[in-house]
């Protein structure tokens, strides 16, 4: 008799930043297919998603991946539903426009710090002091400037073994800071994969006495913060071949700057200062190859005849990719820009 371990993963109701929760369901003779993952329930009163007198919330499986850490295991990303089967108010995945979902492609660049649980400092920071200044950590090699590579490499292997569209890793500008990249066609698909990648990274830290810090500015002073840059395109951006249309799309973001910032992560004002490769949270700008702009127009987009994608550099590392994608889709679709012959 074959028994499979299904790890149901969901987002809780804590505000302003949700946490991941998970629990294991044992299924006999499981097929490995999403359609054979049953709806399950959990105690929402323990996750800020229900009251004790009516505590049940439902878990609806939406994507499934092999679990590299477990024999005959699966990672099951779930949406949270209310008892009547409607999306729970905390269900950010349900905010994505389903009609536009498949036309949009997203590439998320997830930055983060690896923290030592004994010091609550990033790896490489000595207790009570600071390491050398920024400059030599970015894409570094060697034990002097590179910290946590074993964890990062194991995480990359896990993501690939799970079948995620995992596109790369690199050490970032600050000491103990890293990044991984996820690309997927479909906003919901991209969000699922980012959350599952985060889940595997967090779970791996349990073996090291470390934890992952997603706060956008955990180390104050002259240190880079952490973002989750959102690269995005739709058919319009991939095919228009027009600088004018690209600029119209970028301009559509200007009047809704505050609406975007509202879902781009808590404490993002500490990161978006106009320094350390960011634009000010109070401004909006865009430019070709400009990492100090709100939206960067990649040079490859220009070289391909204005056919490609845009990069919104404002989302923080702790942002919910579902909410980020939903807001970007709403802005681009709302601009109603048409290609004229």
From TrEMBL:
Record keyword ATP-binding present: yes
Reaction catalysed by this enzyme: L-glutamate + NH4(+) + ATP = L-glutamine + ADP + phosphate + H(+)
Record carries keyword GTP-binding: no
Keywords: ATP-binding, Ligase, Nucleotide-binding
EC nos: 6.3.1.2
InterPro entries xref list: Gln_synt_N, Gln_synt_N_sf, Gln_synth/guanido_kin_cat_dom, Gln_synth_cat_dom, Gln_synth_gly_rich_site, Gln_synth_N_conserv_site, Glutamine_Synthetase
Enzyme class: ligase
Domain GS beta-grasp per the UniProt entry, residue ranges: 2-85
Domain GS catalytic: 87-341
Annotated TM spans: none
One Pfam family hit: Gln-synt_C
SUPFAM superfamilies cross-referenced by the UniProt entry: Glutamine synthetase, N-terminal domain, Glutamine synthetase/guanido kinase
Homology family: Belongs to the glutamine synthetase family.
Subunit-level organization: Homooctamer and homotetramer.
PANTHER family, per the entry: GLUTAMINE SYNTHETASE, GLUTAMINE SYNTHETASE 2 CYTOPLASMIC
Function per UniProt: Catalyzes the ATP-dependent biosynthesis of glutamine from glutamate and ammonia.
Protein name: Glutamine synthetase
Upper lineage: Bacteria, Pseudomonadati, Bacteroidota, Flavobacteriia, Flavobacteriales
């Amino acid at each position: 008799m074959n028994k499979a371990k299904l790890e149901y993963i969901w987002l809780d109701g804590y505000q302003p930043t949700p946490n991941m929760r998970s629990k294991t369901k044992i299924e006999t003779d499981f097929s490995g297919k999403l359609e054979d993952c049953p709806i399950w329930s959990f105690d929402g009163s323990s996750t800020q998603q229900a009251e004790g007198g009516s505590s049940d919330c439902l878990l609806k499986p939406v994507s499934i991946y092999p679990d590299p850490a477990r024999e005959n295991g699966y990672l099951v990303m779930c949406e949270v539903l209310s008892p009547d089967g409607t999306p729970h108010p905390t269900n950010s995945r349900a905010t994505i426009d389903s009609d536009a979902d498949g036309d949009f492609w997203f590439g998320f660049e997830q930055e983060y710090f690896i923290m030592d649980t004994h010091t609550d400092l990033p790896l490489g920071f000595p207790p009570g002091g600071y390491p050398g200044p920024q400059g030599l950590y970015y894409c570094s090699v060697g034990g002097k400037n590179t910290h946590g590579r074993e964890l990062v490499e194991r995480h990359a292997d896990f993501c690939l073994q799970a079948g995620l569209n995992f596109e790369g890793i690199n050490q970032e500008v600050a000491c103990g800071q890293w990044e991984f990249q996820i690309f997927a066609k479909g906003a919901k698909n991209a969000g699922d994969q980012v959350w599952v990648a985060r889940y595997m990274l967090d779970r791996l830290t349990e073996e090291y006495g470390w934890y992952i810090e997603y706060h956008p500015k955990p180390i104050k002073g002259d240190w880079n913060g952490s973002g989750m840059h959102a690269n995005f395109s739709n058919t319009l951006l991939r095919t228009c071949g027009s600088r004018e249309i690209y600029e119209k799309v970028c301009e559509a973001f200007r009047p809704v700057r505050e609406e975007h910032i509202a879902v781009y992560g808590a404490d993002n004002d500490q990161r978006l200062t106009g320094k350390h490769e960011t634009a000010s949270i109070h401004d909006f700008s865009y430019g070709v190859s400009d990492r100090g702009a709100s939206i960067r127009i990649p040079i490859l987009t220009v070289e391909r005849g204005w056919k490609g994608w845009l990069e919104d550099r404002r989302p923080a590392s702790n942002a919910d990719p579902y909410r980020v994608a939903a807001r970007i889709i709403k802005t681009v679709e709302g601009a109603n820009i048409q290609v004229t012959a």
